[in-house]
């Protein structure tokens, strides 16, 4: 395999990713489907078109988040640690969220934590006081005791989604993670499989229906892909780059594309090395080359 041929296939992978994004961004008319709904379409729709009101709301969330970041920078690390500890204690001790998940939510949801701090501090103005670390922790614990939070906000943010990305995905009638057992179960399956928590958000955004599979469905899909002879490490990269592979049966175009690339000398590890977890790929496009 010549260096020129490798460069050509690498450029095709990049083009397929960009083309896939642009096509779905331009032509998708599928409205957002809330948690609990299922699509009847056989082909995956990776990029949903948000309604005008959702676009406006998302823009507002982005602007608010940007402002929060600037203000959050003024909050000392010791205060953040106390706030994180109080949120962790609430999620795990009071709400019964698994410790690892509660810890991830408390440490990796800066926008939500900043919003929580502002709600707690709006009356007490504790942040203006000196040596206020312990006091802010106690006030957050007291606040959470009487003001339950929407747990999906820190949950989605801890999975790597920005507020503007997870805002349209928030369930309209649920506040607690325990109210959506299938979501939590399928998220746990992906975690145990080895997919990083901050990459699971991309899978949720692009293949939401995966998180409403019944209890044995997702593990069986993962095993079906392993039967192709691909390692778990390799499959993780493919699933993150192409979340729609987890929708339906083993994706035929994906299998054919891999076979075609192997037939001209490209091994799976080379293909894996040229994938970007931040992009999305339509493997059927590869069959045109």
Automatic annotation (TrEMBL):
Residues 31-76 are annotated as: Disordered. Residues 31-43 have a biased composition (Polar residues). Residues 51-72 have a biased composition (Basic and acidic residues). InterPro entries: MTERF, MTERF_sf. Keywords: Transcription, Transcription regulation, Transcription termination, Transit peptide. The keyword Transcription applies. It comes from the Eukaryota. Signal peptide: none annotated. Gene3D superfamilies: Transcription termination factor 3, mitochondrial. One of its GO terms (biological process) is DNA-templated transcription termination. GO terms for molecular function: nucleic acid binding. Belongs to the mTERF family. This is Transcription termination factor MTEF18 mitochondrial. It comes from Prunus yedoensis var. nudiflora.
């Amino acid at each position: 395999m010549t260096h020129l041929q490798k460069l050509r296939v690498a450029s095709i992978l990049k083009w397929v990713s960009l083309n896939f994004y642009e096509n779905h961004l331009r032509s998708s008319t599928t409205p957002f489907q809330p948690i609990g709904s299922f699509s009847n379409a056989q082909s995956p729709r990776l990029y949903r078109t948000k309604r005008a009101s959702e676009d406006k709301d998302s823009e507002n969330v982005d602007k608010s988040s940007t402002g929060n970041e600037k203000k959050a920078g003024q909050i000392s690390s010791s205060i953040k640690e106390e706030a994180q500890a109080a949120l962790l204690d609430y999620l795990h001790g009071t709400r019964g969220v698994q410790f690892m998940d509660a810890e991830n939510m408390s440490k990796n949801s800066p926008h939500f934590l900043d919003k929580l701090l502002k709600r707690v501090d709006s009356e007490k103005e504790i942040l203006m006081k000196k040596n206020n670390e312990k006091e802010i922790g106690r006030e957050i614990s007291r606040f959470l005791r009487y003001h339950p939070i929407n747990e999906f906000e820190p949950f989605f943010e801890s999975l790597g989604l920005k507020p503007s990305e997870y805002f349209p995905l928030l369930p309209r009638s649920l506040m607690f993670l325990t109210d959506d057992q299938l979501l939590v179960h399928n998220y746990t399956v992906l975690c145990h499989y080895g997919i990083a928590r901050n990459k699971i958000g991309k899978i949720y955004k692009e293949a939401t229906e995966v998180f409403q599979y019944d209890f044995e469905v997702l593990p069986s899909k993962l095993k079906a892909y392993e039967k192709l002879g691909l390692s778990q490490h390799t499959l993780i990269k493919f699933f993150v780059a192409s979340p729609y592979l987890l929708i339906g049966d083993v994706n035929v175009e994906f299998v054919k594309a891999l076979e075609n690339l192997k037939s001209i000398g490209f091994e799976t590890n080379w293909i894996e090395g040229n994938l970007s977890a931040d992009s999305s790929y339509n493997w059927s496009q590869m069959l045109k080359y």
